[in-house]
Specification:
Blueprint lengths: L3 E6 L5 H14 L4 E6 L8 E4 L5 E7 L5 H11 L4 E4 L7 H14 L3 E6 L9 H9 L2 E4 L12 E5 L5 E2 L11 E5 L1 H8 L3 E4 L2 E2 L9
Helix pairs in contact: 2-3, 3-4
């Protein structure tokens, strides 16, 4: 039975590298793959999934209003599809995630999604939340904070080098992101517990990291 997979992490953990390697493994065995990435991050009409290691592959673009189930069915009319890969899966809508689930359940094609779990504010992305809820298989891709602990959070830095405490969850603007453990993320954005977890200062003083 085909499954819906979600591999998640913070920034710079190698998600795209793993996706491209998995797609290569399918092709090496004579199979056909279909790849998607988020249009919000695209520089033009053609999508590209690229790794920090310097490898890249063209990909279909998806936007909020797209029907991914129908898109993949249309591709099936022209060619066989053995696996669907989705990069930047945090950008998926809840509808997208259910459309991908139907790809696995009704068309028998495994779907492998790769993306961030939480944003720079420490909040779940809608697509990631839905994937965490209904995906058949979850995998955490680990990376480390500068202190050596496991990084589970990410901060966004502005042009002035200071940590940004608010803004759009998905931004097409080029920004610098740093993966941190929870302790150093909390310090970086200026949120300090006063009397306990339920009592927080207003994090109005972002700090430089």
């Amino acid at each position: 039975m085909a499954k819906l997979y979600f591999s998640y992490s913070t920034m710079n953990a190698g998600k795209s590298t793993l996706l491209l390697q998995a797609a290569h493994n399918y092709r090496e065995r004579g199979m056909t793959v279909l790849m998607y990435t988020c249009a919000a991050y695209a520089d033009g009409p053609q999508g590209v999934i690229s790794s920090r290691l310097g490898i890249s592959e063209p990909a279909e673009l998806y936007s909020d209003g797209d029907d991914l189930f129908q898109s993949i069915r249309d591709h099936l009319e022209a060619d066989r599809i053995d696996c669907v890969f989705v990069d930047e899966a945090q950008c998926l809508t809840r509808k997208h995630v259910w459309q991908l689930a139907r790809i696995a359940d009704r068309l028998g094609i495994p779907v492998m999604c790769y993306g961030l779990r939480t944003d720079f504010r420490g909040e779940l992305f809608a697509g990631s939340a839905e994937l965490l809820s209904i995906a058949d298989t979850l995998r955490e891709i680990r990376t480390i904070c500068f202190c050596g602990s496991k990084a589970t959070m990410v901060v966004r830095k502005g042009a002035d080098g200071l940590v940004v405490a608010d803004g759009d969850q998905v931004s097409a603007e080029k920004s610098d992101y740093i993966s941190l453990c929870r302790k150093h993320w909390e310090e970086a954005i200026g949120h300090w517990p006063v009397n306990g977890p339920e009592d927080w200062l207003d994090g109005a003083n972002p700090r430089q990291v």
